[in-house]
Amino acid sequence: MMKITVASAFALSLFTAMPAFAQFDPLAGSSDAPSGGSTVTVGSADFPESQLLATIYAKALEAEGFEVQKRLNIGSREVYMPALLDGSIDLLPEYSGALLSYLESGSSAHSPEEVAAALKEALPDGIAMLEPSEAQNSDMLSVTQATAEKYGLESIGDLAPVGDEIVLGAPPEFRTRQEGLLGLKEIYGIDFQSMKPLDVGGPLTLSALLNGQVQAANLFSTDPAIAANDLVVLEDDKNLFSAQNIVPIIAETKLTDEIAAVLNAVSEALTTDALVTMNGRLANQEGYEAVAEDWLSKNDLN
Protein backbone atom coordinates (compact mmCIF):
# COMPACT_ATOMS: atom_id res chain seq x y z
CA MET A 1 0.00 0.00 0.00
CA MET A 2 1.33 3.41 -0.96
CA LYS A 3 1.84 5.85 1.87
CA ILE A 4 2.34 9.58 2.12
CA THR A 5 5.81 10.56 3.28
CA VAL A 6 6.48 12.70 6.34
CA ALA A 7 7.13 15.64 4.03
CA SER A 8 3.84 15.14 2.23
CA ALA A 9 1.95 14.69 5.46
CA PHE A 10 3.34 17.96 6.73
CA ALA A 11 2.35 19.69 3.52
CA LEU A 12 -1.14 18.25 3.90
CA SER A 13 -1.33 19.59 7.45
CA LEU A 14 -0.45 23.03 6.14
CA PHE A 15 -3.26 22.85 3.63
CA THR A 16 -5.84 21.74 6.15
CA ALA A 17 -4.85 24.62 8.41
CA MET A 18 -5.54 27.16 5.68
CA PRO A 19 -9.19 27.98 6.58
CA ALA A 20 -7.93 29.75 9.69
CA PHE A 21 -6.39 32.34 7.36
CA ALA A 22 -9.31 32.65 4.97
CA GLN A 23 -9.96 36.26 5.98
CA PHE A 24 -6.39 37.34 5.22
CA ASP A 25 -5.99 39.57 2.16
CA PRO A 26 -2.32 39.78 1.10
CA LEU A 27 -3.08 42.82 -1.05
CA ALA A 28 -4.63 44.80 1.80
CA GLY A 29 -2.62 47.66 3.27
CA SER A 30 -0.75 47.24 6.53
CA SER A 31 -0.22 49.96 9.10
CA ASP A 32 3.27 48.68 9.92
CA ALA A 33 4.35 48.20 6.31
CA PRO A 34 7.10 50.39 4.87
CA SER A 35 5.86 53.38 2.92
CA GLY A 36 7.26 55.59 0.22
CA GLY A 37 7.98 55.38 -3.49
CA SER A 38 11.36 53.70 -3.02
CA THR A 39 9.91 50.60 -1.35
CA VAL A 40 9.90 47.47 -3.51
CA THR A 41 6.81 45.36 -2.83
CA VAL A 42 7.49 41.70 -3.56
CA GLY A 43 4.52 39.43 -4.23
CA SER A 44 4.04 35.73 -4.81
CA ALA A 45 1.53 33.15 -5.95
CA ASP A 46 -0.32 30.96 -3.48
CA PHE A 47 2.02 27.96 -3.29
CA PRO A 48 5.17 27.37 -1.24
CA GLU A 49 7.84 27.52 -3.94
CA SER A 50 6.61 30.89 -5.19
CA GLN A 51 6.58 32.22 -1.63
CA LEU A 52 10.11 30.89 -1.10
CA LEU A 53 11.40 32.53 -4.27
CA ALA A 54 9.75 35.82 -3.35
CA THR A 55 11.41 35.60 0.08
CA ILE A 56 14.78 35.00 -1.59
CA TYR A 57 14.27 38.06 -3.80
CA ALA A 58 13.22 40.18 -0.83
CA LYS A 59 16.13 39.14 1.39
CA ALA A 60 18.67 39.57 -1.42
CA LEU A 61 17.42 43.12 -1.99
CA GLU A 62 17.38 43.88 1.73
CA ALA A 63 20.99 42.70 2.00
CA GLU A 64 21.92 45.41 -0.49
CA GLY A 65 20.09 48.10 1.46
CA PHE A 66 16.79 48.26 -0.43
CA GLU A 67 13.55 48.83 1.48
CA VAL A 68 11.27 45.87 0.87
CA GLN A 69 7.70 44.91 1.68
CA LYS A 70 6.39 41.37 1.13
CA ARG A 71 2.84 40.50 0.07
CA LEU A 72 2.91 36.75 -0.33
CA ASN A 73 0.28 34.11 -1.07
CA ILE A 74 -1.76 36.41 -3.33
CA GLY A 75 -3.40 33.75 -5.48
CA SER A 76 -3.22 32.49 -9.05
CA ARG A 77 -1.80 34.32 -12.07
CA GLU A 78 -5.29 35.61 -12.82
CA VAL A 79 -5.11 37.51 -9.52
CA TYR A 80 -1.49 38.58 -9.11
CA MET A 81 -0.86 39.82 -12.65
CA PRO A 82 -3.56 42.51 -12.32
CA ALA A 83 -1.99 43.37 -8.94
CA LEU A 84 1.36 43.88 -10.66
CA LEU A 85 -0.25 46.04 -13.33
CA ASP A 86 -2.14 48.24 -10.86
CA GLY A 87 0.90 48.79 -8.62
CA SER A 88 -0.25 46.71 -5.65
CA ILE A 89 3.00 44.77 -6.04
CA ASP A 90 6.23 45.60 -7.90
CA LEU A 91 8.11 42.34 -8.23
CA LEU A 92 7.41 38.62 -8.27
CA PRO A 93 8.96 35.32 -9.35
CA GLU A 94 7.41 33.85 -12.49
CA TYR A 95 7.64 30.77 -14.70
CA SER A 96 8.45 31.78 -18.25
CA GLY A 97 6.32 29.34 -20.22
CA ALA A 98 3.26 29.58 -18.00
CA LEU A 99 3.31 33.37 -18.06
CA LEU A 100 3.75 33.39 -21.84
CA SER A 101 0.78 31.04 -22.22
CA TYR A 102 -1.29 33.34 -19.98
CA LEU A 103 -0.37 36.41 -22.04
CA GLU A 104 -0.32 34.81 -25.49
CA SER A 105 -2.22 31.55 -25.61
CA GLY A 106 -1.31 30.75 -29.22
CA SER A 107 2.47 30.89 -28.80
CA SER A 108 4.40 27.99 -30.29
CA ALA A 109 7.60 28.73 -28.32
CA HIS A 110 8.95 25.77 -26.34
CA SER A 111 12.71 25.98 -25.76
CA PRO A 112 14.04 28.22 -22.96
CA GLU A 113 15.45 30.68 -25.50
CA GLU A 114 12.29 30.78 -27.60
CA VAL A 115 10.07 31.23 -24.59
CA ALA A 116 12.22 34.00 -23.11
CA ALA A 117 12.25 35.95 -26.38
CA ALA A 118 8.50 35.56 -26.88
CA LEU A 119 7.74 36.49 -23.26
CA LYS A 120 9.79 39.68 -23.51
CA GLU A 121 7.65 40.74 -26.46
CA ALA A 122 4.36 39.68 -24.85
CA LEU A 123 4.75 41.48 -21.52
CA PRO A 124 2.34 44.39 -20.98
CA ASP A 125 3.64 47.96 -21.16
CA GLY A 126 5.31 48.98 -17.92
CA ILE A 127 6.39 45.44 -16.98
CA ALA A 128 9.90 44.08 -17.54
CA MET A 129 11.57 40.70 -17.16
CA LEU A 130 15.10 40.24 -15.90
CA GLU A 131 17.49 37.39 -16.67
CA PRO A 132 15.81 33.95 -16.53
CA SER A 133 17.40 31.35 -14.31
CA GLU A 134 18.46 27.97 -15.64
CA ALA A 135 16.25 26.55 -12.88
CA GLN A 136 12.93 25.24 -14.11
CA ASN A 137 9.80 23.99 -12.46
CA SER A 138 7.94 22.35 -15.30
CA ASP A 139 4.37 21.14 -15.46
CA MET A 140 4.07 17.39 -15.76
CA LEU A 141 1.52 14.65 -15.47
CA SER A 142 2.31 12.00 -12.88
CA VAL A 143 0.75 8.67 -11.98
CA THR A 144 1.43 6.05 -9.35
CA GLN A 145 3.51 2.99 -10.14
CA ALA A 146 0.36 0.88 -9.91
CA THR A 147 -1.52 3.00 -12.44
CA ALA A 148 1.47 3.05 -14.81
CA GLU A 149 1.70 -0.75 -14.69
CA LYS A 150 -2.06 -1.26 -15.04
CA TYR A 151 -2.31 0.79 -18.25
CA GLY A 152 1.25 0.52 -19.56
CA LEU A 153 1.86 4.24 -19.21
CA GLU A 154 5.19 5.82 -20.09
CA SER A 155 4.20 8.98 -21.95
CA ILE A 156 1.27 11.39 -21.88
CA GLY A 157 0.14 10.01 -25.23
CA ASP A 158 -0.37 6.61 -23.62
CA LEU A 159 -3.33 8.11 -21.74
CA ALA A 160 -5.38 8.65 -24.90
CA PRO A 161 -6.77 5.09 -25.23
CA VAL A 162 -7.67 4.89 -21.53
CA GLY A 163 -8.68 8.49 -20.83
CA ASP A 164 -12.28 7.53 -20.10
CA GLU A 165 -11.02 5.58 -17.09
CA ILE A 166 -8.80 8.37 -15.76
CA VAL A 167 -9.78 11.18 -13.39
CA LEU A 168 -7.26 13.99 -13.60
CA GLY A 169 -6.35 16.08 -10.55
CA ALA A 170 -5.24 19.65 -11.32
CA PRO A 171 -5.77 23.28 -10.25
CA PRO A 172 -9.11 24.82 -11.34
CA GLU A 173 -7.51 27.02 -14.00
CA PHE A 174 -6.06 23.92 -15.70
CA ARG A 175 -9.52 23.36 -17.17
CA THR A 176 -9.32 26.43 -19.43
CA ARG A 177 -5.61 26.69 -20.22
CA GLN A 178 -3.93 25.57 -23.44
CA GLU A 179 -1.22 23.97 -21.30
CA GLY A 180 -4.00 22.07 -19.57
CA LEU A 181 -7.14 20.24 -20.66
CA LEU A 182 -7.39 22.17 -23.94
CA GLY A 183 -3.93 21.14 -25.09
CA LEU A 184 -4.26 17.60 -23.77
CA LYS A 185 -7.37 17.23 -25.96
CA GLU A 186 -6.02 19.09 -29.00
CA ILE A 187 -2.46 17.74 -29.06
CA TYR A 188 -2.81 14.31 -27.45
CA GLY A 189 -6.47 13.52 -28.12
CA ILE A 190 -7.17 12.74 -24.46
CA ASP A 191 -10.74 12.84 -23.15
CA PHE A 192 -10.55 12.27 -19.42
CA GLN A 193 -13.42 10.77 -17.48
CA SER A 194 -13.40 14.01 -15.49
CA MET A 195 -11.12 16.59 -13.92
CA LYS A 196 -11.11 17.10 -10.18
CA PRO A 197 -10.16 20.71 -9.30
CA LEU A 198 -7.56 20.69 -6.55
CA ASP A 199 -4.65 22.88 -5.44
CA VAL A 200 -1.64 23.98 -7.53
CA GLY A 201 0.39 20.77 -7.51
CA GLY A 202 0.20 20.79 -3.74
CA PRO A 203 -0.67 18.49 -0.84
CA LEU A 204 -4.32 18.07 -1.81
CA THR A 205 -3.36 16.97 -5.33
CA LEU A 206 -0.70 14.58 -4.02
CA SER A 207 -3.05 13.08 -1.44
CA ALA A 208 -5.78 12.56 -4.05
CA LEU A 209 -3.30 10.77 -6.33
CA LEU A 210 -1.90 8.51 -3.62
CA ASN A 211 -5.36 7.69 -2.27
CA GLY A 212 -6.78 6.84 -5.70
CA GLN A 213 -9.27 9.72 -5.86
CA VAL A 214 -7.55 10.70 -9.11
CA GLN A 215 -5.48 8.47 -11.37
CA ALA A 216 -3.28 11.20 -12.90
CA ALA A 217 -2.19 14.53 -11.48
CA ASN A 218 -0.60 17.78 -12.58
CA LEU A 219 2.55 18.03 -10.45
CA PHE A 220 5.80 19.95 -10.90
CA SER A 221 9.37 18.95 -11.54
CA THR A 222 10.80 20.47 -8.35
CA ASP A 223 8.39 18.61 -6.07
CA PRO A 224 10.42 16.32 -3.74
CA ALA A 225 7.29 14.19 -3.26
CA ILE A 226 7.71 12.71 -6.76
CA ALA A 227 10.85 10.77 -5.83
CA ALA A 228 9.75 10.22 -2.23
CA ASN A 229 6.57 8.44 -3.38
CA ASP A 230 8.09 6.66 -6.43
CA LEU A 231 5.68 8.40 -8.79
CA VAL A 232 5.96 7.95 -12.54
CA VAL A 233 6.39 11.13 -14.58
CA LEU A 234 4.81 10.70 -18.02
CA GLU A 235 7.01 11.90 -20.88
CA ASP A 236 5.67 14.97 -22.69
CA ASP A 237 6.60 13.50 -26.07
CA LYS A 238 4.66 16.11 -28.08
CA ASN A 239 5.96 19.10 -26.11
CA LEU A 240 2.66 20.39 -24.75
CA PHE A 241 4.36 21.95 -21.75
CA SER A 242 6.88 24.64 -22.63
CA ALA A 243 10.06 25.61 -20.80
CA GLN A 244 9.37 27.01 -17.33
CA ASN A 245 12.49 28.91 -16.35
CA ILE A 246 12.13 30.98 -13.20
CA VAL A 247 12.39 34.68 -13.99
CA PRO A 248 11.89 37.89 -11.98
CA ILE A 249 9.10 40.10 -13.35
CA ILE A 250 9.17 43.72 -12.21
CA ALA A 251 7.38 47.02 -12.72
CA GLU A 252 9.55 49.31 -14.84
CA THR A 253 8.90 52.17 -12.41
CA LYS A 254 10.90 50.28 -9.76
CA LEU A 255 13.60 48.85 -12.00
CA THR A 256 17.11 50.24 -11.55
CA ASP A 257 20.50 48.92 -12.60
CA GLU A 258 21.24 48.09 -8.96
CA ILE A 259 18.03 46.12 -8.46
CA ALA A 260 18.58 44.30 -11.76
CA ALA A 261 22.10 43.32 -10.67
CA VAL A 262 20.85 41.83 -7.40
CA LEU A 263 18.05 39.81 -8.98
CA ASN A 264 20.14 38.66 -11.95
CA ALA A 265 22.74 37.34 -9.50
CA VAL A 266 20.02 35.33 -7.78
CA SER A 267 18.87 33.90 -11.12
CA GLU A 268 22.43 33.01 -12.11
CA ALA A 269 22.96 31.01 -8.92
CA LEU A 270 19.59 29.24 -8.80
CA THR A 271 19.35 25.62 -10.01
CA THR A 272 16.55 23.09 -10.31
CA ASP A 273 18.33 20.75 -7.87
CA ALA A 274 18.58 23.56 -5.31
CA LEU A 275 14.83 24.13 -5.61
CA VAL A 276 14.10 20.45 -5.02
CA THR A 277 16.28 20.54 -1.90
CA MET A 278 14.73 23.75 -0.58
CA ASN A 279 11.19 22.50 -1.25
CA GLY A 280 12.04 19.38 0.73
CA ARG A 281 13.13 21.53 3.67
CA LEU A 282 9.88 23.50 3.51
CA ALA A 283 7.93 20.27 3.60
CA ASN A 284 9.88 19.26 6.71
CA GLN A 285 8.57 22.25 8.66
CA GLU A 286 11.42 24.68 8.02
CA GLY A 287 10.35 28.28 7.46
CA TYR A 288 10.73 30.38 4.32
CA GLU A 289 13.06 32.85 5.99
CA ALA A 290 15.51 30.23 7.23
CA VAL A 291 15.59 28.28 3.97
CA ALA A 292 16.03 31.45 1.91
CA GLU A 293 18.75 32.77 4.22
CA ASP A 294 20.72 29.52 4.04
CA TRP A 295 20.60 29.43 0.25
CA LEU A 296 21.63 33.08 -0.05
CA SER A 297 24.52 32.53 2.37
CA LYS A 298 25.71 29.45 0.49
CA ASN A 299 25.81 31.50 -2.70
CA ASP A 300 27.34 34.65 -1.15
CA LEU A 301 24.24 36.71 -1.90
CA ASN A 302 23.52 38.18 1.52
Could you give a quick summary of the protein structure above?
The protein contains twelve helices and ten strands.
Give the helix/strand layout:
Blueprint: H1 6-16, E1 40-43, H2 48-63, E2 68-71, H3 77-85, E3 91-95, H4 96-103, H5 112-122, E4 127-129, E5 139-143, H6 145-151, E6 167-170, H7 178-188, E7 194-197, H8 203-210, E8 216-220, H9 225-228, E9 232-233, E10 246-251, H10 257-269, H11 272-283, H12 288-298
Parallel strand pairs: 1-2, 6-7, 6-8
Antiparallel strand pairs: 3-10, 4-10, 5-8, 5-9
Pick out its properties.
D-Maltodextrin-Binding Protein, domain 2; alpha/beta; three-stranded antiparallel sheet; globular; 12 helices; 302 residues; 2 domains; 10 strands
Q: What would you say this structure looks like, in words?
A:
Residues 1-22 form the signal peptide. Residues 39-298 form the ABC-type glycine betaine transport system substrate-binding domain. This is ABC transporter substrate-binding protein. Keywords: Signal. It holds the Pfam family OpuAC. By secondary structure, the chain is α/β, with parallel strands linked by helices. It folds into two domains: 40-136 and 243-298, Periplasmic binding protein-like II (D-Maltodextrin-Binding Protein, domain 2); 139-233, 3-Layer(aba) Sandwich (D-Maltodextrin-Binding Protein, domain 2), CATH 3.40.190.120. It is 40% helix and 14% strand. It has twelve helices and ten strands. The protein has helices at residues 6-16, 48-63, 77-85, 96-103, 112-122, 145-151, 178-188, 203-210, 225-228, 257-269, 272-283, 288-298; strands spanning 40-43, 68-71, 91-95, 127-129, 139-143, 167-170, 194-197, 216-220, 232-233, 246-251. The chain has a five-stranded mixed sheet. A three-stranded antiparallel sheet has the order 3-10-4. Strands 1-2 form a two-stranded parallel sheet. Helix 1 packs across helix 11 (272-283) and helix 11 (272-283) runs antiparallel to helix 12 (288-298). The longest helix has 16 residues, at 48-63. The termini are far apart. The relative contact order is 0.19.
